[in-house]
Design goal:
Layout (H helix, E strand, L loop, with lengths): L1 E9 L9 E6 L8 E9 L1 H21 L6 H22 L7 E2 L1 E7 L2 E7 L3 E6 L2 E4 L6 H7 L5 H4 L21 E2 L11 E5 L1 H4 L4 H10 L3 H14 L6 E10 L6 E2 L13 E2 L13 H23 L36 E5 L6 H13 L11 E4 L4 E4 L3 H9 L6 E5 H100 L6 E3 H4 L10 H4 L3 E5 L14 E5 L5 H23 L5 H4 L8 E5 L14 E5 L2
Antiparallel strand pairs: 1-11, 2-3, 3-4, 3-5, 5-6, 6-9, 7-8, 7-10, 10-11, 12-13, 14-17, 15-16, 15-17, 18-20, 19-20, 21-22
Helix pairs in contact: 1-2, 6-7
Length: about 625
């Protein structure tokens, strides 16, 4: 046997972490060539993941060492070993108390496949484009289905559907369900191992449609997970898809564990029908059968005339003949059907209901009809009573009391109706699934749009916040610069005032000196903007000290000059000079009062007859050649 597989596990859309685990050993050397494992952990996202991972490692470890050569025993021992590992871990670490996991295992040995499981993770087979369950869930709702209290569809929406009746790690011992018969798989068959995150959200019909829609395993696995997410994705999703690409078998053989219908209890050779077809007869055969039917009808009619009322006759030619149709409410009515309108099987010695039902099913499946347990009816030879399937209590009793000569039969019209109804239900179910999927897609689209809108609002708010922070920072920076500039200005003013104070104090000290004679220029000789050359008085006779501590461009602060008598002059000479200066001041003031001005102040163009020239006393300073100070006045 040659096979390929693709596996993938996904956290889903709701759970914070993935508690599922997947494991496999491919082309193993030893009795078991290929091993596939899927586990669904429970007990919190830490404990559940720990349990499922421990189960995978333990089972792989078992098969890598010296497993039992008998597949069923090896499967049982490997799962029991995993159970002890999980249970022991929880006992040693109380924080993981109560953790557990489901498990499904499929192994290949000498071209045959063997399976075992605990919990509600499943194994399916897809053969001839039809899907069959190979495992039956160990869950509370499955017990209700088995008891006839729930349908397969109802169990998926039951509020207690997640309650398991078996799981690994809960106790020291675990009841492992191992399939009693090996599976024969032909080329093209596909096996699906999955957690209930898949089969609990999408039904078998959708799973089958998806598997049939894709030729590549990777695309199939991806789409199965996407379908589960579109259906809500409220659990972790794990899928392992195995395809048989080469096999020695031409027909598949396995035990079908589907809930509806579920009348087969033994290994069966499954044949997947295409479209239902009726047996074909040529024209001559139809005419011959019609003549035979008329003759038989006449004989039977004659027979019934001589029989007690309401008695029934069942011929041994494989078909019930009667004079009226069967009603589930009145099983004492007379049968009325021609021989090709029904199919039946006679109970042989030692045969039970399961064997007879299986024979009947094979019989009408060969004609292209699908299995229909509810269509089956029992004819009791001794009482000549017909018991329909819907008479539950009587039917169950009749199943247990089947005797040789009793018969199990179905009407062809019931098979056709059941097939039509089932197709309708499946179509409606698929339509509903598509509708829900579309709603889920739209909801997801709306959710993403809302998330995008909120993200955009958040981005704009963040940009606005940053811009506001930048503006505030800029204002703060400017305010800080302004504050620093103001502090610097005040510090400079304070420093300059202190410097000025010190200088003035120094000048006052100099002016009060007994040995030196000082004059301050702005008080002693700068007279009403009249310019005369003070150097004639001071440059050669005084030491000029310029106080540069004051900024020359500041209009509020005057530049002070201090003059100190040089060694060339005596105090008396300095006083004489000052006296002469006072005299010049008075004389200049006199002429100013008469309207005389300097050349620039009187706006005189030149000296002419219209201008009276006045010669002022010459102030001699050294040589007689020094120019005198001259004032002017325009004539009237």
């Amino acid at each position: 046997m040659k096979l390929i597989h693709i596996s993938k596990t996904d956290v889903g859309l709701v759970r914070p972490a993935n508690e599922d685990s997947i494991g496999s050993i491919i082309n193993n050397t030893g009795v078991y060539s290929n091993i596939f494992i899927v586990c669904d952990g429970m007990g919190g996202h830490v404990g559940g993941a720990r349990a499922s991972q421990t189960a995978i490692r333990s089972i792989e470890e078992y098969f890598k060492n010296t497993p039992d050569p008998t597949p069923n025993i090896a499967l049982k021992e490997s799962i029991e070993f995993a159970n002890l590992q999980i249970y022991g871990d929880a006992e040693l670490n109380p924080e993981f108390k109560g953790m557990g996991t489901t498990v499904t295992v499929m192994v290949e040995s000498e071209g045959l496949l063997y399976i075992a499981h605990v919990g509600d993770s499943r194994i399916y087979i897809n053969t001839d484009k039809k899907l069959y369950r190979l495992t039956k869930d160990h869950s509370f709702v499955q017990t209700l289905v088995d008891a006839g209290q729930l349908t397969d569809a109802e169990m998926e929406t039951h509020p207690r559907k997640n309650e398991l009746t078996k799981a690994l790690g809960i106790g020291m011992e675990v009841d492992v369900e191992v399939a009693s018969q090996p599976i024969r798989a032909k080329s093209g068959d596909k096996f699906l191992l999955c957690s209930d995150g898949l089969c609990g959200l999408i039904n078998d019909s959708t799973i089958n449609t998806t598997i049939n829609a894709y030729s590549e395993l990777e695309a199939t696995v991806y789409e199965l997970i996407e379908q589960a997410k579109k259906a809500g994705g409220n659990d972790n999703i794990s899928v392992d898809l195995v395809e048989i690409i080469q096999s020695d078998f031409t027909k598949s053989k396995f035990v079908d564990q589907n809930n509806i219908p579920n009348t087969n209890t033994g290994t069966q050779e499954v044949k997947i029908p295409t479209e239902p077809t009726m047996p074909k007869m040529n024209k001559k055969l139809k005419i011959l059968l019609s003549l035979v039917g008329l003759i038989v009808f006449a004989l039977v009619g004659n027979f019934y005339i001589n029989q007690p009322k309401n008695e029934k006759v069942l011929e041994n030619n494989g078909a019930i003949k009667s004079t009226s149709t069967i009603s589930s409410g009145d099983t004492n009515e007379v049968l009325e059907n021609i021989s090709d309108s029904m199919i039946y099987v006679t109970v042989e010695s030692g045969e039970g209901y399961s064997v007879v039902s299986h024979k009947l099913t094979e019989k009408y499946e060969e004609l292209g009809y699908k299995e229909c347990a509810v269509c089956q009816k029992i004819w009791k030879k001794r009482s000549e009573e017909v018991i329909p399937y819907d008479n539950t209590e009587a039917y169950e009793k009749a199943k247990e009391e089947l005797k040789k000569g009793d018969r199990l039969f179905v009407f062809i019209k019931d098979l056709e109706k059941e097939y039509s109804d089932k197709i309708k239900v499946e179509t409606e179910s698929l339509t509903d699934v598509n509708r829900k999927a579309e709603e889920a897609r739209q909801a997801e689209k709306d959710k993403k749009a809302e998330e995008k809108r909120k993200a955009e609002e958040k981005r704009k708010a963040e940009e606005k916040r940053k811009a506001e922070e930048k503006r505030e920072a800029e204002e703060k920076r400017k305010a800080e610069e302004k504050r620093e500039a103001e502090e610097k200005r005040k510090a400079d003013e304070k420093r300059e005032a202190e410097q000025k104070k010190l200088v003035l104090a120094k000048i006052d000290s100099l002016l009060s000196s007994e040995n030196d004679f000082w004059v301050r220029d702005e008080l002693d000789w700068r007279i009403d903007h009249i310019n005369f050359d003070e150097s004639k008085f001071f440059d050669n006779n005084f030491e000029k000290i310029t106080v540069e501590n004051f900024p020359p461009n500041d209009e509020n602060i005057e530049t002070l000059y201090n003059y100190k008598l040089s060694d060339k002059l005596t105090v008396s000479k300095a006083k004489e000079i000052n006296s002469r200066i006072e005299k010049i001041k008075k004389e200049v003031k006199k002429y100013q009062d008469l309207g005389y001005k300097t050349f620039e102040e009187c706006d005189c163009e030149k000296e002419n007859s219209e201008t009276q020239k006045i010669e002022v006393i010459k102030i001699k300073q050294g040589e007689p050649k020094d120019d005198p100070l001259i004032l002017y006045k325009k004539s009237e």
